[in-house]
Automatic annotation (TrEMBL):
Keywords: Membrane, Transmembrane, Transmembrane helix
Name of this protein: Uncharacterized protein
Transmembrane portions of the chain: 20-43, 55-74, 135-158, 164-184
Length: 296
C-alpha cells in the first residue's frame, strides 16, 4: 500500500441546495439593484418594486447562503469524516519491529486534503512547524471576504440612512471574518523542537527557559521521544444527496517512551510530510516508522 492519493479521492462539493439558492438570490439582487428596468416589465409592479426595494438584502442573503454552504463543506472535510486507519493497517504491510508496541490508530479526527503546515529549520538547534502558504491564504480569504462584504453593506447602509438593510449582511461578514481569524490563530500556533531547551512544545514561539514548557498546550522533553510515526487514514465525507467522497490524510506523530503520542502535522501531502519526518528524525536522532513507504 503506497502513501499516494488516488485520483478518485476528491473533496465534496458545497451543499447544492444552499449553493443554488444563494446564487439565485445573489443574481436577482444584483439585477434589481443595478438594472431594475429589466425585471419591471416581467413581474407585477408590486413584486418588482419589492425586489428593487430590498435588492441589497437579497444580495446579502445570497452571499450568506453561499458562505454557509462553503463552511458546511469545510466542516465535513475536516471534522465530519470517518477514519479507516485500523482496516488499512490490517491490509497493509507488517510494521517494523520497533513499532510493535506503538498504537497505529489515527490520532486526530479527519484531516485536510492540502498541505496545512511545513517544517522550518530556524537554527542548527531549532526546528519549527509553521502554517503553509495555502493555509494562510485560505484563512485570509475568509477574513477578506467577511470584512469586504460586511463593510460594503454597513457603509452603504450608513450612507443611505437605512442600517436595517445592512444588519444581516454585516453579521454574516462578521461571522466570516471571525471564522478566518480563529482558523488563522489555531494554525499559527508553533510546534517547536529546541535542543537548547531540550523540549518540544506547541504554543508560544519563544520560551524564557525549560520551566516554561509546562505552560504550553502540549509539550515533552526531547529525550522522551523514542520514534517518529507516520500513518495514513482514509477520510470520507458524505453530501446531502447521499454521495460520498474520500481522500487520504497523513499524520506525523511523536511517540514517547511511555506510549503517549503527540500529533505534529496532519495534512494531505504525503511527499512533504515524509520529508519533514525524516528531517525531524535526523534532528532528534530517532527512527522514523513509515510502514506504508512505497517499494523502490
Amino acid at each position: 500500500m503506497s502513501l499516494s492519493q488516488p485520483e478518485s479521492a476528491r473533496h465534496t462539493k458545497p451543499n447544492p441546495a444552499l449553493n443554488v439558492l444563494g446564487t439565485v438570490l445573489l443574481i436577482v439582487g444584483l439585477v434589481a439593484l443595478f438594472v431594475p428596468s429589466t425585471i419591471q416589465p416581467l413581474l407585477p409592479p408590486e413584486l418588482a418594486g419589492l425586489l428593487v426595494e430590498h435588492a441589497k438584502l437579497l444580495i446579502g442573503l445570497g452571499i450568506a447562503l453561499q458562505v454557509i454552504a462553503t463552511l458546511t463543506r469545510f466542516k465535513k472535510i475536516i471534522r465530519g469524516g470517518y477514519r479507516l486507519g485500523q482496516q488499512q493497517q490490517a491490509a497493509g504491510p507488517h510494521q517494523p519491529d520497533k513499532g510493535e508496541d506503538v498504537d497505529w490508530t489515527p490520532l486526530k479526527a479527519g484531516g485536510a486534503n492540502f498541505r496545512t503546515h511545513h517544517l522550518v529549520q530556524v537554527s542548527p538547534s531549532r526546528l519549527e512547524v509553521r502554517p503553509s502558504i495555502q493555509m494562510m491564504l485560505f484563512c485570509l480569504l475568509f477574513m477578506a471576504l467577511g470584512a469586504g462584504v460586511g463593510g460594503v453593506f454597513v457603509v452603504t447602509g450608513i450612507r443611505d440612512g437605512n442600517l436595517m438593510t445592512a444588519v444581516i449582511p454585516g453579521l454574516v461578514g462578521l461571522v466570516f471574518l471571525l471564522t478566518g481569524a480563529l482558523l488563522l490563530k489555531s494554525a499559527s500556533k508553533r510546534r517547536v523542537f529546541d535542543l537548547s531547551l531540550g523540549g518540544y512544545w506547541r504554543g508560544s514561539g519563544r520560551l524564557n527557559g525549560p520551566q516554561a514548557l509546562v505552560t504550553q498546550a502540549e509539550w515533552a522533553w526531547l529525550q522522551e521521544i523514542k520514534v517518529i510515526q507516520l500513518l495514513q487514514e482514509r477520510v470520507t465525507s458524505r453530501s446531502d444527496n447521499g454521495r460520498s467522497r474520500s481522500y487520504w490524510s497523513y499524520e506525523l506523530n511523536l511517540v514517547l517512551i511511555d506510549g503517549r503520542r503527540l500529533n505534529v502535522m496532519d495534512h494531505g501531502n504525503p511527499g512533504r510530510i515524509r520529508q519533514d519526518a525524516e528531517v525531524i528524525g535526523q534532528f532528534l536522532g530517532v527512527p522514523v516508522l513509515d510502514p506504508f513507504r512505497p517499494s523502490p
